[in-house]
Amino acid sequence: MTSRNTKRTVVIAVLIAGLVAGLATPVAAADITALVAASQFSSGLFIALVSATGPSTLVDAQLVVNNTTPIVPASVESYLLNGPRNATLFKIVSYTQVVKPGDTLTAIVTDVTATHGADSAVCGRGAPALHITSICR
Fold it and tell me: Domain 3-136 maps to which CATH number in 2.60.40.1240, 3.40.50.2300, 3.40.50.1980, 2.60.40.10?
């Protein structure tokens, strides 16, 4: 696979995950609402997007696999989105095999008051033609 194809595949995966993660909607005024989507690639690259809203500034997002194994990311980036309720998008990247089909990926989002919100996604079969081994949504 060429470098150009790898970049294109990553961009496509991030866009798909971003569209899915962007659907988080507020439930109640005092709650943190989160939505997680992720892709695991055969190269080991793992990208998760966590979209969250809450009444206070959101400061952290963490991932756990099967409610037991925390993911140690290579990088976590946060982007404040235009809109109500402190909408934030977290991009979490790892360069190791993190999830496989059948796993459950849970995102835990924390705000400045130490309030937590969570969302879980079941990981299924990926798109082998794009070298995606698992997609969590």
Answer: 2.60.40.10
